[in-house]
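Lab meeting, item 3. Inverse folding demo.
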């Protein structure tokens, strides 16, 4: 996996300097533009095309907070392909109540209950976002051992947020019934 932070010469961070990320992107876009290498060997052209592609991907990931969060967790080896992460029981119980209310709404549509359900999910999501922001902001000033604990907490919040995203999709479907 390419380390986009190293590619841009930046320290690993959940909150990199966005202006610097953009500056590096434009700098490398010019430096690795395939048109400038049209008279070079096929190998050099392929290399430049690869660097241009890495530059585009790096910018897409590092300039988007959600993609960046996922990427840092992946880079640190905390997200595995096909991982079956187990969410805490307390969170699942809270979500079960919301899921049950959502099922009731499928059989007995009620715009007032649906709006209330959306508010509940918004509240949970806001709490998770605030917690993630707090952890990612304090991350860089921590010792290595503290960072390891913080990364585990962020991973848990990441999976909770993903769960909420699926719940949000179900709510949107219920709103269209």
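The presenter then showed the designed sequence:
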């Amino acid at each position: 996996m390419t380390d986009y932070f190293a590619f841009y010469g930046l320290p690993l961070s959940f909150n990199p300097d966005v202006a610097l990320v953009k500056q590096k992107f434009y700098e490398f876009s010019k430096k690795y533009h395939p048109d400038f290498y049209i008279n070079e060997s096929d190998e050099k052209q392929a290399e430049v095309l690869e660097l241009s592609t890495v530059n585009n991907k790096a910018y897409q990931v590092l300039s988007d907070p959600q993609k960046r969060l996922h990427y840092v967790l992946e880079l640190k080896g905390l997200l595995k392909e096909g991982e079956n992460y187990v969410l805490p029981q307390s969170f699942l119980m809270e979500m079960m109540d919301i899921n049950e209310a959502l099922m009731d709404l499928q059989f007995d549509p009620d715009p007032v209950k649906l709006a209330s359900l959306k508010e509940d999910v918004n509240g949970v999501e806001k709490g998770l976002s605030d917690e993630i922001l707090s952890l990612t902001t304090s991350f860089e000033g921590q010792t290595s051992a503290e960072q390891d604990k913080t990364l585990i907490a962020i991973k848990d919040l990441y999976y909770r947020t993903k769960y909420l995203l699926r719940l949000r999709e179900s709510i949107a479907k219920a709103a269209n019934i």
